[in-house]
Amino acid sequence: MNVTIIGAGNMGRGIGTRFVAGGHSVTFVDANPEAAEKAVTDLKSAAKNGAKVSSASLGDVQLGDVVVLAVWYGTNIEIVKQLGDKLAGKVVVDIANPLNSTYDGLATAPDSSSAEDVAKAIASGAKVVKAFNTTFAGTLLAGQVAGQPLDVFIAGDDADAKDKVAQLAKDGGMRPVDAGPLNRARQIEGM
């Protein structure tokens, strides 16, 4: 699969490491082009089975089959609005934990989640999946903890979209766990 990761910080690089190790090509996009280029340099050695690693700007990127929003809550919503119809038909993975300013609760309403807010803001035809928000960047780089594969909780309303994300997780040596519909993101984000 071709994957676009928007956000080349610690989480974006950790997720990208697992994807290229699983043989999937990754394009990094970041507001800081140097960060995207550094991610490319850092991940090339992890690429297996012909996976390619590249970078692009948000305005010029040819989006992959899967688009991972490896950015903060709020920024994720701005990005999907900016990309608009380019996201139609794509699987969009939200990884944000919408923490409030004091980090002692969530910024979202009790009857919503970051992923559901993204789904409300996104172009028609895009399929939103919640995943990777309960894993840490360092463990993603390592691919395991104490010899055990990482669990990746996946929530979404489209079975095919969840299957694509599960395949990426499996190929990267992780264990996908289907957590149910997208509204289960509320509980996953609360974890």
Please tag this protein with its features.
globular, single chain, 191 residues, Rossmann fold
Question: In a nutshell, what does this entry contain?
Answer:
The chain has 191 residues and is an alpha/beta fold.
Give me the CATH fold name.
Rossmann fold
Strand order of the largest sheet: 3-2-1-4-5-6-9-10
- Return the domain count: 1
In total, the number of strands is 10
Can you describe this structure?
With 191 residues, this protein is α/β, with parallel strands linked by helices. The chain has a single domain, classed as NAD(P)-binding Rossmann-like Domain (Rossmann fold, 3-Layer(aba) Sandwich), CATH 3.40.50. Helix content is 34%, strand content 22%. An eight-stranded mixed beta sheet has the order 3-2-1-4-5-6-9-10, with helices on both faces. Strands 7-8 form a two-stranded antiparallel sheet. Helix 3 (75-83) links the parallel strand 4 (66-69) and strand 5 (91-94).
Topology record:
Elements: E1 2-6, H1 10-21, E2 25-29, H2 33-43, E3 53-56, E4 66-69, H3 75-83, E5 91-94, H4 114-121, E6 127-130, H5 137-142, E7 144-145, E8 148-149, E9 151-156, H6 159-171, E10 175-180, H7 185-190
Parallel strand pairs: 1-2, 1-4, 2-3, 4-5, 5-6, 9-10
Antiparallel strand pairs: 6-9, 7-8
